[in-house]
Amino acid sequence: MGTAWVAFGAAAYFALESQLWHDHQTTAYAVIAVVTAVATFAAFLAARTVFRRFGAHWWHIALATAVLCCTGAAAPEAAAYVFPDQMARYHRELGGPGQCLHGTPYASEREFPKASQVTYDDRDSERMTVTPIDKAYQPLVLDHAVRGGLHRLTPADAKSSQILESHGC
Known about the structure:
Elements: H1 2-17, H2 20-23, H3 25-54, H4 58-82, H5 86-95, E1 116-120, E2 128-132, E3 140-143, E4 154-155, H6 158-166
Helix pairs in contact: 1-3, 1-4
């Protein structure tokens, strides 16, 4: 039963972080139910095999409980890593350490909080604008800036393409 609750919670976190819950609730319900059922059935089969082979000992239950607790505790962080928000994606793809815009006026806010400002057109828009504080630089406008998005951030206009190309992106 514990496996079912942990699988349900983990699947729900992934559905929320991926925006599946907000965009397609019926599909999210189905995915959560299938993941919960498959994980529970797999845990049942594994437990049955272990108990038949080695017998039921207290340490089996303790180990299973520890694994379930660790899995449940790691689910939110794993979901946020797989389906990051817009700023985490920008940091990972363009502005963070080792990326093409790192060390430029377009660098990620995590590294250079006073170098640029990030704004969004509106709540339903898929665009983000990175505006350097130094007005000598043009704003960088990126498409596919949605929470939990799987598409790479891409330039939204010709000026943004030139900015990315000039920095080797």
